[in-house]
Automatic annotation (TrEMBL):
Xref: InterPro entries: DNA_helicase_UvrD/REP, P-loop_NTPase, UvrD-like_ATP-bd
Binding-site residues for ATP, renumbered to this chain: G247, G248, P249, G250, T251, G252, K253, T254
Alphabetical list of Pfam families matching this protein: UvrD-helicase
Keywords: ATP-binding, Helicase, Hydrolase, Nucleotide-binding
Feature: compositional bias, Basic and acidic residues: 9-22
Domain UvrD-like helicase ATP-binding, first and last residues per copy: 226-647
Protein name: UvrD-helicase domain-containing protein
Region annotated Disordered, chain positions: 1-22
UniProt cross-references to Gene3D superfamilies, sorted A to Z: P-loop containing nucleotide triphosphate hydrolases
Tagged with keyword ATP-binding: yes
High-level lineage: Bacteria, Bacillati, Actinomycetota, Actinomycetes, Kitasatosporales
Amino acid sequence: MAAHNATHAPDHASESVRAREIDAEQTHLDRVYRRLEEKIHEAEFLMDDAAKRGQVGTPGALAERDAQVFQAGVHLHRLNSEYEDFLFGRIDLLLGKDGKKGPDGAYTSVEPAEGAIVDNRARIAETLHIGRLGVLDADYSPLVIDWRAPAAAPFYRATPVAPGRVVRRRVIRSKGRKVLGVEDDLMRPEITATLDGEELPAIGDGALMAALGRARSHTMRDIVASIQAEQDMVIRAPAASVTEVEGGPGTGKTAVALHRAAYLLYQDRRRYAGGILIVSPTPLLVAYTEGVLPSLGEEGQVAIRALGSLVDGAEATAYDPPAVARIKGSSRMQKLLRKAARAALDLSPAGAAPTQCPAGQLAFGDDEETAPAVRTDRLRVVAFGSRIELDADELRAIRQSALGGTAPVNLLRPRARRLILDALWSRSGAGRRYTDPELVAEARAGFDEDLTTETSFQEFLDAWWPELTPRGVLAAMADEKLLGRWARRVLNPREVRQLARSLGRLDASGHGPLSVHDVALLDELQQILGAPMRPARPREADPLEHLTGLEELTTYADRNGGGRGRRERLEEERTDYAHVIVDEAQDLTPMQWRMVGRRGRHATWTVVGDPAQSSWSDPDEAAAARDEALGTRPRRRFTLTVNYRNPAEIAELAGKVLALAMPGMQSPKAVRSTGLRPRFALVGDGAGSAGESALAAATAAEAERLLGEVDGTVGVVVAMHRREQARRWLAPLGDRVVALGSLEAKGLEYDATLVVSPAEIADESPAGLRVLYVALTRATQQLTVLSAGRDQPDAAGVPDLLRD
Ligand SMILES: Nc1ncnc2c1ncn2[C@@H]1O[C@H](COP(=O)(O)OP(=O)(O)OP(=O)(O)O)[C@@H](O)[C@H]1O
């Protein structure tokens, strides 16, 4: 933790020293921009030149041209993106142990040379500026070091306890091309250091506190200028295998995960051209975080997806009450879905069990409306002049035998077809007419050909072994009687009823509102059924890809119009990633772990979470599913210990719920305090609609009061069933206020938070106390807890759950 632990020098510098230091940084920034402009011109020239070479056809010229286009495209893509604080940091370093320089032109040694400090006096031997991208001067000396480069690591890692070569660490604040201020931390306050003969001054109040004090908007900001040492260790951890990060609320897990994605791309762009997937629990958190990577200069290869949007063509919009969520998320569903997918074959529209099959119960491929009215309880064919028939029992036996394999159900159809032909052939007795095996084989080939080219035979197959869709099977499970049969020894009758009712919101073809849990079931079914056999979509030719074969240029093209749609489609089609980052991992249900696991079978992983915030009721079951998804890959574990979000006053109150929810679990240490204690408010008495309107009035009044207190956003957290109500209550207050169901608050933060009826939130589900802990840890400045009768508040309005 660099800035946090740093001994901060009092601001001795006079205004003129401050102005001089700002001027010096301005001069450097001007130089950087001049160099950037030169590079832009160079890149444009190269692109132009490369286009001309395209007309020369020799292989050598083409290879050279491709390399040039690639380089120029990378430069243009990066340089064309104007960043507000392109340059944000600087370190002043002592002479290194050896004289070696890295590829970025900086000395590589971490430790100072012997004799670098004499009698507590030292000379600054190297000054490095840190920015969002690396920029070399025309003579290859480093003007700006990329924040992800090894040479930038001391900017984040140096502390007064282990300062290495760093004497002064400076954060530069700028807007556009203008430097506004600097904040310094001295890592070796005991020494007097000189730079170019002048004493090194220290200015400002430290960068971290400045960053934390800023008002929050509806989107997250990057933290490149103030990443702390323990966070930096995670961001720069080697990519191999699995990196697991735990830490309490506000410790920067989400921020670290996003910065790690940018770091991995910087380290090994080619490898991660295979894509990085960031899985977020809710669309709200996706919207909150998705601006961070572009601000770090990365967007092309990273897909941030909510759990409910991981399956193409499905989008979770519905909410499942906890009891239903528990059934759908449980790993017991695997067995049930396997059974349902196989049994669903029996439900063909004219199948052997028509009474069990409400019309249109299943979707058959794309043309469900024109499903043929073919009998599937017997098969009659005419071959070699005689009639052959298979009855219902024989067909059932054939189906059972075909399903004996483990292959996906839709892919077993050719096998079933072969077994039917075998049975018909044997019934025909034709094989016995020949003794010569060659003649037998010839007759059999003719027999098969005659039958399989018959339209009626194909129609029978289509009806008897229809192509099942995940949605169709899910919809079939809404029939309680059928579901009860399929779920025998897996779910109890009450669970069967709850599940069937919940799936009843889907129409016969499985369309209708899906929940985040349904999406994981669809993914599992997709796996069980296998991809429907469709003609491959013709791939669109991309002129730039044709030129270079390299992803970076595609990103450049996307930025410059035209290519974006294509990139989004590529993301949609991609199901296997090179690296998977799971945010709020404690919340994934076993079925969701299976869904996410399938997207990273060959990936390396970063998994961040906090068990104390888990809204899943059976953590052991989820842990087992997580182990299965991550396999036997070795794991590297990190813990983040400092809460950067909540002031100590709010963290302390939340700690009371933590003690109830997870006895013995340590709260992270809050890094600052505001002196403002959380406020307790009460809803007036009243039952029924009077009580409801009192709650509405008190919620709106307190939200309005908080709006007056803070510059940024106010989050109002209510129990899930009150979400819609609360949105209506708060609508007149404008868009600085957001109403959130308790489960939607995950990962988000607001300047002020109003938590409405803690008891109601805690009673919502078996994990309710942990969900309440999440709600209480969303505020960066102020927190109000509003209690109603069920909260049993004391005279001061403190609800029972939050009393000592
Ligand atoms: N080093 C830092 N410098 C400045 N701000 C930071 C730093 N680390 C974290 N923050 C800020 O602290 C807040 C909390 O970070 P983040 O949301 O990543 O925490 P989290 O561990 O994911 O929290 P939760 O578990 O509650 O979702 C964010 O506003 C983030 O920008």
